[in-house]
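Entry:
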Amino acid sequence: MNKNLYEKINDEDFNLDSYEKIELNDLEKIKMKKDFKNNTKKKNRKKYIAVAAALTLTIGLFNTEFGNNAYAAAESIFYNINYSLSNAIGNNKNLDKYTSIINKEVYDNGVSIKINEVAINRNELIISTNIKLPAKVEGFHYYQDIFINGKPAKETSSTGTLEDAGNNIYNEMTSTKITDLNNTDNLDIKIKIRKIETFNGDNDIKKIKGKWDFDFTTSGAELTKNTKNIPISETININNTNITFTEYSTNDFGQVIYAHSENSPKISYDYRLVGKYNLGNDVEFYLNESQNNNLLFKNQSAIDEKASELYLNIESLKLPEQSGKITGTFKKGGEITLEIK
């Protein structure tokens, strides 16, 4: 992910058995493939994946003089590119006081990754990245391991945005949810990337192995202090499932709604919340995460700070029972009113 000089770090021994693998559900598999491809073709600041992270540690041990020389030759790849979190989120807010500037670039095996900025928002580690690949691709995915204060982080899911900047350079923002993330103290974070997969069509998948390591310190204390959490209690039945909305949370990074479901059917659905707030403007929350009957909806539209109520209709889209193209349209369910002041 970021740029600067390549730092050698000591190799470490890890207990591979201690890593928890979390399987992807049908919704997450379909969205990763469908949305990820679409968003590499045009600038799009909406979600591109809602995929549970399968924590697989790949320990690649190569650090050669050739690699160091190659990095030096590529040192200026991102000299005029700085993809900030404000750019990525696109909410016209000044987020500087909540972010840590990293600006570190690592080059290996034909790939340059630069981390620009990082921030901690609730239980998420948010990272702004530039990546330059050897060739243009429809999509890519890299496998990373995150360590916080020397211990492996328990990642549960990752979402983000992707922009094709041209010349095989991609601007990316990822938001990784981490269990028990401390968002008030300074955290020493290490990110290790050992493998990148690129794809151009279903049958053209390439793997690039290398060593892209980053170390930095950050804290979510300032953002946590300026986050407002409002308890709510609204239940709606849709598709024979009871969904209860439990909390509305807002800060300069955006708004989210927490919910949980009961009596979920075997058939998978995507959900969204569409409506207006009391000042008359349209608003839409998309389903950002669905795990263990816990749902997280993220806002993708501006909400005026003076707004006091949301009038939302929950809509659902049936997902195919087997992998394949998502067809059909969202169908309206019930309406809810949420007090947000």
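Residues 234 and 245 are 5 Å apart (CA to CA).
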